[in-house]
Amino acid sequence: MLDKNQKPDVAEMDVRARATRLAAKPVDEALINDQNVGVVELTLSEALVIGLLKQGVRRYFAIFGHGSTDLGEVLRIYHEEGAVEVINCRNEVEMAHAATAYAWVYGKTPAVVTSIGPGGLQAMAGSLAAASNGVGVYHIYGDETTQGEGYNMQQVPKPEQGIFGKMTALMGQSYTLHTPGALRECLRRGTSCVHNPYKAGPFFIMLPINTQPQVTRINVGTLPARNKVPAVAPASAEDLAEAVAFLRSHKRIVIKAGGGTRAHYEAIRTFATRIGAAVVLSPGSTGVLMDGHVQNMHVGGSKGSLSGNYAMSNADAVIFIGSRAVCQADCSGIGYPNARAVMNINGDLDDLTHYANTVCLPGDIGAVLRALLAELGDDTGVSLRKNWLRECAAKKDEWIEFKTKRLFAPPLHDSVWQRPVLTQPAAIHTVASFANQIGAIKFFDAGDVQANGFQIVEDDAPGQTFTETGASFMGFAGSALLSGAYLPDAKYGIAFTGDGSFMMNPQILIDAVEHGVRGMVALFDNRRMAAITGLQYDQYGCEFKTNDGVAVDYVAMAGAVSGVKALHGGYSREELGAALEVAQAYDGLSLVHIPVYSGRDPIAGMGAYGSWNVGNWVDDVQGKYLTATI
Questions:
Q1: Averaged pLDDT for residues 238-266
Q2: Up-side HSE of residue 398: CA atoms within 13 Å toward CB?
Q3: d(Cα 200, Cα 562) in Å, to the nearest integer?
Q4: Is the pTM of this model over 0.85?
Q5: Cα(547)–Cα(144) distance, integer angstroms
Q6: What 8-state DSSP symbol labels residue 492?
């Protein structure tokens, strides 16, 4: 190993030569020749970067620290030669969200780099968004040494081994590279997790400080490439017989289309139409059925819709497709009180078998639906459900009328702003409609903006909206804008965020400028945690500690950052529309501050439906759960 004062000319030249070849060719083609037969001598840090390259990992979101200096040096050279791309960030939660959004929106796998300690804990917290939404991301944390020579900086001060590895194993799947020889197994487990076709998630690589510069010999040809699993489905007619009988007998079927249906939306549309079922969406699956489609009942659950909850409440059978069982989506186990039977299509066995009385069809959604429709033939049972669809369509008309009144409600006088301002539904709809008009993608933060948002959005295809409902992570939306940095085909993004969520992670103001991001933050400011305020009023009749008396000039704040265009959104739909036009025309990051009403006027909210197992509703909800049949 080189002395710390020795100029690493020869070593760097070798690394740079490999990086140059890897920038132009795939890993095996670049590094395997007749002389070496694939065996190359490298440091663990470089071997890891090469192994990840073989899985398509070329983008790193990084905050370098004392735990990652050796890895950082390899990434410096590889970045300079164009083999990888390193985006330096200012906050670990922010970069975890940016990496999640990059994988979610663009379908490419990134890595997050930081050190253990406060940085690792923050990145780990941010990884909850990836875990909750089934998004595969690598997290690489510089870990304490393997020598046990005494407390390393930022390790947990406790006489126990590998504590950060234990914590990350609880958050997802984790592997400690205690020795360079473990790299192949680490990457095999990594791709099985990050590229899982049914439930991907974050994979944590703990990279001890002292193993990073260790030289090892690896066989490049045996490093695992990106995991690819063939689509699977039930193998025979006998496996499908129960499902066929199910579809030919039940008159009031509802399909619950979860987030897993986004990649199979065409198959879902064909299946729903052929069998004549109502479709209820999750917050994360808007667009799977076109917004105006007569069978689209929109979102169901405690923050759902009149039509979605009607379909859930009155169905006699439910088909869950690509869906987790979530308390607010199925109303804590009592969302389908009249359902007597379930069919579940899912590749994840735990989700597949969650409900009682279930016909299980494991495997790839598209493959399963194709096999099922082929077995059904023309006798799909669709004629049984004509009256059911008419009932549901009438309820959807009622929802549309209800929604329209709120989306176009006039400004209301607000006690904080001391003047009439837009209601949140009206403001969100104005921005969402503008986003659809210009082909922008919408990122929604947690809170009242998010809850109103997925009741309001009018998407006709998946990928128009990304809403982080899995973990409800405040600060996700603004951070997600960083995902498009340096991409030639970057999609224009609009972050829909509340004042509370924005202040959880405002670093995008700086990082967007640093990395040339073009996008917009739409900041809906009601000076309170409105979602919780509403819940407090609904349950206990009063608000407690969910607001503040501190005025913030967000236009001045954002405008203080060189390169950010900050605008006031005005007090009417017309003024807001004009501000959006100016913001979108700007070649960089813009922020539009939108004062919105917060109060008890019912026209200012989209309503809550169903039941939720919280607060003083618990006894009632859990009592109903005992009588549920699924």
A1: 96
A2: 12
A3: 38
A4: yes
A5: 42
A6: P
